[in-house]
Structure formats: structure tokens, C-alpha cells
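FORM 12-B: Structure-to-Sequence Request
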């Protein structure tokens, strides 16, 4: 008897820092989304396609963390989250299982009231739990706040609970054809991922308000047989932030460049020369034209995902 083939779109939503991007990367088995221990790392939606030949194709969509939007950038981020709730086959609502249930969680759950799609509660970071006894009461709190179709405790970092999560996801998908070829992994162009990897290294190197003020764009990408030359600009909002990113005698920027280049070489399988430039651009988070240019989808005039 032929097994039925399942396919569908599955969005990962939840508060910032809950591990959505980490989970996307581990489910796909490839780094597609940058990860940092700072909230609001992800600024747009990112597709990752998992094809299980003869069995299923799951199109995961990573999204920015649910938060109260104040700037134009943050409003766009929340628009991405809301768009990712529509026309999906299944939603994964990620929470940090090492944190007690609180008001912010309740507020984040509110966004789910706008959708009729089934939502699975994913309790991530269970590796941080010293006392596993807190898990059941936590699940009860979440179940009281929303009617989740299922719940799965996982650790994206340690790879715990992922088989069970895959099983629950596949069960929640309808029968359907593959939407993409077997080797298709993401809609995100390498040029955008390159800019993101640079931003990730800046986030790792800075603290407090600096991460929120950083934008990275690739200005030029010159491919040659021996080496690919990438020229990118790191934008910050204030001169003091520029000094922090550059560091003493340029050491900070040099380290950011080295780490970003090494990771790009590994991921893209090519030799890279990376040239980084830091520029102060006050108020870029409020400027629509600049925000359009930052996100490859609006840059290319493509439809929102
Ligand atoms: N201990 C532990 N840490 C995790 C786990 N999953 C993610 N993290 C860490 O949590 C932090 C946030 O991870 P991200 O994947 O960037 O979180 P996110 O939900 O995508 O965050 P935003 O993009 O800001 O919404 C990083 O420091 C991760 O290494 C996990 O299972 N266990
Ligand atoms: Mg993220």
C-alpha cells in the first residue's frame, strides 16, 4: 500500500529568545537563521524546507519574536509575525520552559486568538531544567491560557524531543504534494544570509542597546573563480556605537570580520574576502526606504511571506 505524502506550511512563533531560529536550524540541519542571546535577533520571516522523500515536505517559517512594537522596524517585524499566522497548516508556539509563566506569555498567546489554525505548544530549553517537576505545572498554565492541540518538550540545543516533535508535526499536516524540488532548502538569498551572519557576529560582540541599533547590508558581491569578494556596511545609530563595534585599534571589527568570513566560507563552500565598513546612520529604524532596502523581499519587490 502506498503511504500518503503530506505537505504544508508550519510557522514558528513565540516570544523573543525562546529559540525559534535555533529550532529551525536544527530541524533543517543547516544554519539558515542567525541566533543570539539577545531579544529581537530575527527581523524578518525565513523559510526552511524539510523534505523527507516519499513521506513529506514541511515548509517551516521562522519569525521575529512577539513583542510590543515601538519603532517602524518593530512594527514591520510584528507584521511578519501576523502574516506568518495566516494560511498555515500548523503553528508551533515556542516557549522557554526554564522560565515561569508570566504576563508577557499571556500577552504573546493573545496573538493566537486571531487564527483558527491548530497550534502545538513547544516547550524549549528543557536542558536548563534542574527540576523536571516544574514542567507539568508549566504545561497546565499554558493549557489554561490556550487550547493547544498538543505539547512537546524539547531542547533545540541538545537535540532532545525532536523525533517526537517531527512526529507531531507530520501528524498535523494534510495530504498534499511537494511544493518545492527535493534539494530546495530556503527562499533566502546567500547575499541576505551573508549580511545576517555579519549582524550575528556584531550581536555576539555587543550588549544593551547596541544590538537593536545595528543593520547590515551587503553592498557588493563579486564572484571570481578563486575568491568571492563581499563588501558590506554595518550601520549603527550613534557615534559611540560605532566606536564600540570597531573596538580598540579596530580589534572588534577585525574579529567580527574574521568570524563572519569563516562561517560564510564553511556554509557557502567558497573562499571569501570580506570587507567591512561601519557607518553612523541616525534613526534608520524609522526610515521606510531604508527598511525596504534591508529586507530582501521588499528590496526585490516580492510578496510578503
Ligand atoms: N540552553 C538552551 N539554550 C537554547 C536552546 N534553544 C535556544 N537556546 C539559546 O537561546 C538563545 C536565543 O535563541 P534564538 O534561536 O536566537 O531565539 P529566537 O526565538 O529565534 O529569538 P528572536 O529571533 O529574538 O525572536 C540563544 O542563546 C540560543 O543558543 C535550548 O534548547 N537550550
Ligand atoms: Mg530568531
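FORM 12-B RESPONSE
SEQUENCE OUT:
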Amino acid at each position: 500500500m502506498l503511504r500518503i505524502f503530506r505537505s504544508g506550511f508550519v510557522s514558528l512563533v513565540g516570544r523573543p529568545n525562546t529559540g525559534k531560529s535555533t529550532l529551525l536550524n536544527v530541524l533543517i540541519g543547516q544554519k539558515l537563521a542567525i541566533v543570539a542571546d539577545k531579544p529581537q535577533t530575527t527581523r524578518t520571516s525565513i523559510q526552511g524546507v524539510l523534505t523527507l522523500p516519499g513521506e513529506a515536505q514541511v515548509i517551516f517559517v521562522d519569525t521575529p519574536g512577539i513583542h510590543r512594537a515601538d519603532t517602524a522596524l518593530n512594527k514591520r517585524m510584528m507584521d511578519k509575525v501576523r502574516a506568518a499566522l495566516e494560511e498555515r497548516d500548523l503553528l508551533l508556539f515556542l516557549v522557554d520552559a526554564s522560565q515561569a509563566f508570566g504576563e508577557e506569555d499571556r500577552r504573546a498567546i493573545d496573538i493566537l486568538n486571531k487564527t483558527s489554525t491548530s497550534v502545538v505548544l513547544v516547550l524549549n530549553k528543557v536542558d536548563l531544567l534542574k527540576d523536571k517537576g516544574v514542567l507539568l505545572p508549566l504545561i497546565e498554565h499554558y493549557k489554561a491560557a490556550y487550547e493547544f492541540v498538543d505539547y512537546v518538550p524539547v531542547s533545540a540545543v541538545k537535540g532532545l524531543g525532536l523525533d517526537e516533535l517531527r512526529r507531531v508535526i507530520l501528524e498535523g499536516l494534510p495530504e498534499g504534494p511537494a511544493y518545492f524540488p527535493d534539494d530546495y532548502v530556503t527562499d533566502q538569498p546567500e547575499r541576505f544570509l551573508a549580511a545576517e551572519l555579519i549582524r550575528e557576529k556584531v550581536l555576539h560582540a555587543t550588549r544593551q542597546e547596541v544590538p537593536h541599533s545595528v543593520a547590515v547590508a551587503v553592498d557588493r558581491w563579486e564572484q571570481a573563480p578563486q575568491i568571492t569578494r563581499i563588501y558590506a556596511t554595518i550601520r549603527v545609530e550613534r557615534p559611540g556605537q560605532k566606536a564600540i563595534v570597531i573596538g580598540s585599534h579596530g580589534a572588534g571589527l577585525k574579529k567580527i570580520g574574521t568570524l563572519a568570513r569563516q562561517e560564510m566560507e564553511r556554509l557557502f563552500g567558497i573562499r571569501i574576502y570580506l570587507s567591512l565598513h561601519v557607518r553612523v546612520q541616525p534613526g534608520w529604524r524609522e526610515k521606510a526606504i531604508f527598511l525596504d532596502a534591508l529586507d530582501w523581499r521588499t528590496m526585490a519587490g516580492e510578496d510578503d511571506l
